[in-house]
Amino acid sequence: MATTSDIRNGLCIKYNNDIYKITEFLHVKPGKGPAFVRTKMKSVTNGKVLDNTFSAGHKIEDVRVETHKFQFLYHDGEFYHFMNEEDYTQIRLLEAALDRPDLMKEGQIVTVIINTEDNMPLSVEMPASVVLEVTHTEPGVKGNTATNASKPATVETGAEVSVPLFINEGDKIKIETEKGTYKERVKE
Fold this sequence. Notes:
It is found in: Cytoplasm. It comes from Bizionia saleffrena. This is Elongation factor P. One of its GO terms (cellular component) is cytosol. Keywords: Cytoplasm, Elongation factor, Protein biosynthesis. This protein has about 190 residues and is mostly beta strands. It folds into three domains: about 1-60, SH3 type barrels, CATH 2.30.30.30; about 65-125, CATH 2.40.50.140; about 130-185, CATH 2.40.50.140. It is about 0% helix and about 55% strand. It is built from no helices and 16 strands. Strand 3 and strand 4 form a beta hairpin. It is flat, with a radius of gyration of 20 Å.
């Protein structure tokens, strides 16, 4: 059993007969009244996001997990297939278990969180950023770059990202996976 002081991003807990992963948390100590922890949790079974507030010292049941490196192989409709880097076993996961499946490229290495009680995969953690090639975007108009203007661009995985006007088709860009936002252009 853990308490609210153990809450951190990525912690998996049992709550309402389901397993949730903490995605955001904030310890709040108001001037008047007891302290509490405000959390945003994502269900690892169906992807539902839940906002919840725990009072300070509240007991929570944590889930013991292991992390393993897996390589993303392919996806066939609703399932995404991964291969373990150590023993070459393969698993498949529903799209709901993935945070940003539209930014995953075949062959990419991800971290899979596995429940140690039943060896079931719970969720997939992407790297902090990925480098993808822009496959389609409208050309920028010369002279419109004085402001922080942006335009939509489609990358090689099919995801759409808002990019600055100077980005062209064929450019490689770094995308922050947590928010799905453009970070920088990558020169090779």
